Amino acid sequence: MTEITAPKSPVTSAEFADEIREQLKYSQGVTAEQATAADVYVAAAKAVRNHLADAWFTTQADTVNGNTKAVGYLSAEFLMGKQLENALLNAGLTEQFDEAVKSLGFQPKDIVDAEYEPGLGNGGLGRLAACFIDSLASLGVPAFGYGIQYKYGIFKQKFDEDGKQVETPDYWLNNEEPWGHIDYNRDQKVSFGGEVVEEDGKKVWKPAWSVRAVPVDYLVPGYKSQRVNTLRLWTAKSYDEFDLLAFNKSEYMDAVKPQVKAENISKILYPEDSTKVGKELRLEQQYFFVSASLHDAIRVFYPGQDKPDLTTFPNKITFQLNDTHPVIGIPELMRILIDEYGYDWDTAWGVTQKTFNYTCHTLLPEALEVWPASLIGELLPRHLEIIEKINEQFEAELKAKGVDEATAKDMAIYTGDSVRMAYLATYGGSHVNGVAELHSQLLKDVTLKNFSDAYPDKFTNVTNGVTPRRFVKLANPGLSDLITEGLGTDKWVSDLEMLEGLVPLAQDDEFVKKFAAVKAANKHAFVGFAKDHYGLDIDENTMFNTMVKRLHEYKRQSLKILAVISKYAAIKNGTVSADDILPRTVFFGAKAAPGYYLAKMTIQLINNVSKVVNNDPDVKGKLAVHMLPNYNIEMAQNLIPATELDEQISQAGKEASGTGNMKFALNGALTVGTLDGANVEIRERVGAENFFLFGMTVEEVDKLYADGYNPAKYYEADPRLKQAIDLVAGGTFSNGDRNAYAPLVSDWLTKDWFMTLADFSAYADIQAEIEKLYRDPLEWNRKAVLNVANSGFFSSDRSIEDYLERIWHTGPLA
To answer: Which cofactor does it need (predicted)?
Structure first.
C-alpha cells in the first residue's frame, strides 16, 4: 500500500468562512445575511474547488511531463453521488467547513442536503467507476475518467397509486451546478453517417453530419494524496444550432432541428432501445464519447504537435473499457491512426492492441452487446470496414493457431449480419478481466472459453472494491470513530486491510456493545431520514433487512418478496406463534429498465404487498415492507449503515461480482446469500460461520438446466411457496384482480429461468437460523464485527493496485 501523508491544513475556519462570503457576494450576488442554504452550498463548493485547483494543475502538468503512464477509464456511467462532503474530506477541509457555515448561521447538514445528486449511472457499473477514480487519485495515479454528462441522467423513479414504476426526467442540472467546468476551447468534433470513398489510393470517410463534443471537467481529489485527477464528461452541442431563416418563416421546429438532433446524444443514460431509432441513439452515444476522449488524449499528451509520434501512445496512457459500451473505441483508434495520421495497418494495430484493456462485467448473453452490422454501416461506415478487416486478420490468426473452422466461426467478431462487441474487445486489447474470482473463472470456462483457450495469457481477475472514504468514513461516522478507537489510528481509511486489527476486539464484549450502540444509532438516524424523505413511520425496534440493487430477474427480488408473502401468510393464519415472530422491517430499493416488463411488474407487486402488509393490524409491529423510491447514493449512505441483514440472493453463476455486498459487510451487516459473484470471496474472508449461505451452486444450477427444470414441481412440493404464489394469483395484492400479476405468476410456474422456485425452500429454511442468532444480540454483533474486520480486502484501493500490477503496469506520480 502506498504511504499517504496528510497535507497541512490549507486554511482556518475563519478564513474559510471569509472565502464563502466572497463567493456569496461575487458569484451568487447575495450577502451572507441574504443567503439561503442553496446559496451557501454553491459558494462553499466553489471555495473548495478553488482549494483543489492548484493541485489539479500540478497533477495535469506532472501527468503530461512525467514518465508515469496515465489511465483513461472509459465508462458510460459514473455514479458519483453528492460531491461536497467527499471533496471536503479528501481536501482536509471538513472541520473548517463545519465551523465556517455555523459562523454564517447555518447547520452543516442543511448545506450538504442542498446539493442535488446527479443520476449519471444506473447501478454497480457506474458506482464502481466512481470508486475507481477516487482510488486512482488517492493512490496518486494519473488518470482521466471519460464519459457523458447526461442532461437528465438515468431517470427519477416514482410510483403511481397502483404501485407501478413511473419514470420521470431527473432535472439535476436545473439549478447551478458548481462542480463541473465547461471548457468550450477544448471541444472535439465527432462525425456520423455519410460514405467512404477512395481518393489517391486511400480510404476517405465523408461524414453526413457532425456534433460538437464539449468537455465538462470535474475535479477528483485524492484522499490526503495532494493529487487531483480529472473526470471529463462530454456534452453534445450542434454546430448549426439555429436556422434563423426557418424561424422567420414561423417554422419553429425546423429552426432547432440540428440542435435537438445533436443534444439528444447527451440527454439521457441508456435510451430505450427496442426500436431502431433507440438503437441508433445508443450507438451514437457510445461513439460520441469514445471518439471525443481518444482525440482529447492525443491533444493532452502531444500538445501543439501536428505530427506526433503516436507509436508512443500506449506509453502515455492505457485505456480501460468498462464493459462493452466503449468498445467502438478500438476501430476508432485504428481509424485515427490510419486515416488521420497515415500509419500503416500493422503499426496501427500494434498501437491499438497495446492501448486497450477490457473489463467484462457480466455472464448474461443479452448484456454482451451485439450491434447490427447494417446500423454500424449506416452510422459509422468507415468503422465497419475496419471491423471487417480486423475480423479477417483474426480468422487468419486463429487458423495459424490450429483452431478448427467451426470454432473460429463461433468466435467471429463480424458475422456479416452483426458485430460482437465483447469479442472485438477481447481480441483488440491486451487484457480481459472479470470482477470476482468466480466470475473470472466462468468467463474463461464458459462465456469466453474459446478466446481463453486461444489467448490464455490475456485473461486475469481483479475483484471489485468500494471506496472506504465515501462508504465508511462519510456514510458511517459512528462506526468510523469506533474503528479508529479500536485500532488506535485512522490510517485504515487509506489502508483498509488494517481492519484485521479489529478481529481480537470481536471477543471483547464491551467493544461489541459499543458496536451495537453504533448500529442502533444508525437505525434511529435512518428512521428520521425515511420520515423526512418518504413520509414513512418505521419501527426501529425491528430487524432492518435490506435488498437494494438494480431490478433484474437474476438478482431475484421475486425470491425475497415471495418469502415476505409467506411470512405474512404464516402470521395471518397462525402457523407461527406470536412468541416465535421476530419483528422485521424489509426494505427494497431498485429501478427497472423502462422496457423491462417483468421487472416493472415485480416492483408493482412489492409496492402492493407493502400496502397490504403495512395496513394490516394483525401484523403491525411484526412485519413491515417498504419499497423506497429512486434508490441512489444518498439513500445508500443512509440505509446501508442502518442495515442488519443484507440480501445477496442472485442465482449462482449470474452475478459478476456485486459491490453492495461489500458495502454492507464493511458497515456491519450480516449477509444471507448464494455462492455467487463476490459473495464467494466475502464468505471465505469473513468466515463461513459469519455468513448465511443457502441455495444451489453453479454446478447444481447447470445440472438442473441440463436435466430439464420444471418450476411447477417446486411449487407443489413446498406449501409455503404454493400459498405465497396462490395469494399473488388470487388477487390478495391487487384488490381481488386475479389477472393483475398473471404474467409474473405464469413465468414463475412455467419458465422461472433463474430458478427462484428451486431455491425458495432453502431460503425460507435459513430464516430460522437467522432469527435464532438475531435473538442473541451479543453474538449477532460479534459476527457483525468480524464481517467488518475481515472485509478490508474489498477496498477499491486494493482493486486499483491489482489493475496496476496485472494489467496497466504503471504506478503513482513521483
So the answer is: pyridoxal 5'-phosphate
Q: Is residue 366 part of a domain?
A: no
Q: Provide the angle, in degrees to the nearest 10, between the axes of the packed helices 777-789 and 756-774.
A: 110
**Cα separation of 725 and 562, whole Å?**
7
Whether residue 177 contacts residue 81, with contact meaning beta carbons closer than 8 Å, is answered with no
What is the overall mean pLDDT for the chain?
95
Residues near 496 by beta carbon (within 8 Å), at least 6 away in sequence: 468, 791, 792, 793, 794, 795, 797, 798
Provide the residue type at 562 as one letter: L
pLDDT at residue 240 in the model: 74
Look at residues 283, 270, 314, 364 and name the one whose alpha carbon lies nearest to residue 592. 270
The continuous run of DSSP H or E covering 74 comes out as strand 70-74
Catalytic, 600? Answer no
Q: How many helices (H) and strands (E) does the chain have?
A: 34, 22
Instruction: Work out the average pLDDT over 797-812.
Output: 98
**Catalytic hit among 663, 685, 720, 783:** 663
Q: CA 667, 669, 670, 673 torsion: positive or negative?
A: negative
Catalytic residue among 49, 232, 335, 549: 549
* Active-site choice (232, 316, 361, 600): 361
Q: Is 230 left (phi over 0), alpha (psi -120 to 50) or beta?
A: beta
In the set 473, 519, 555, 560, the catalytic residue is 555
3-state secondary structure 765-791: HHHHHHHHHHCCHHHHHHHHHHHHHCC
- The string of DSSP letters for 700-744 reads HHHHHHHH---HHHHHHH-HHHHHHHHHHHTTTTTTT-TTTTHHH
Say yes or no to pLDDT of 31 above 80.
Answer: yes
Distance CA 663, CA 642 (A): 12
* Residue 549 annotated to the active site: yes
Residue 555: C-alpha distances to residues 552, 658, 729, 753, 782 (Å): 5, 10, 22, 12, 29
Which residues have CB under 8 Å from 526's CB, separation 6+?
A: 538, 540, 544, 638, 639, 641, 642
Of these residues, 127, 151, 550, 556, which one is catalytic?
A: 550
Residue 334 is placed in which grid cell? 485504428
Spatial CB neighbours of 251, under 8 Å, sequence gap ≥ 6? 243
Q: Is 663 a catalytic residue?
A: yes
Inside any domain, residue 386:
no
CA neighbours closer than 13 Å in the CB half-sphere of residue 34: 7
To the query of whether residue 203 is one of the catalytic residues in this protein, the response is no
The answer to whether residue 2 scores a pLDDT higher than 60 is no
Task: Indicate if the pLDDT at residue 6 is higher than 60.
Answer: no
Q: How many structural domains is the chain composed of?
A: 2
Q: Which three three-digit cell numbers place residue 341?
A: 495520421
Does 555 participate in catalysis according to the annotation?
A: yes
**Each residue of 87-140: pLDDT tens digit?**
999 999 999 999 999 999 999 999 999 999 998 998 899 999 999 999 999 999
Per-residue pLDDT, 248: 64
pLDDT band at 273 (very low <50, low <70, confident <90, very high): confident
CATH number at residue 684: 3.40.50.2000
pLDDT band at 326 (very low <50, low <70, confident <90, very high): very high
Helix pair 84-91, 124-138: axis angle to 10 deg: 20
Q: Is residue 654 part of a domain?
A: yes
256 or 622: whose pLDDT is higher? 622
Examine residue 402 and state whether it is found in any structural domain, yes or no: no
pLDDT in the model for residue 804:
98
Q: Say whether pLDDT at 395 is over 50.
A: yes
Task: Give me the domain span that covers residue 212.
Answer: 11-67+82-122+140-276+287-313
Residues with Cβ < 8 Å from 272, sequence gap 6 or more? Answer: 278, 593, 594, 595
User: Which tens digit of pLDDT belongs to each residue from 221-238?
Assistant: 999 999 999 999 999 999
* CB-based contact 211:188 (threshold 8 Å): no
Mean pLDDT, rounded, for 74-87: 97
Question: Residue 562 has which C-alpha cell?
Answer: 415471495
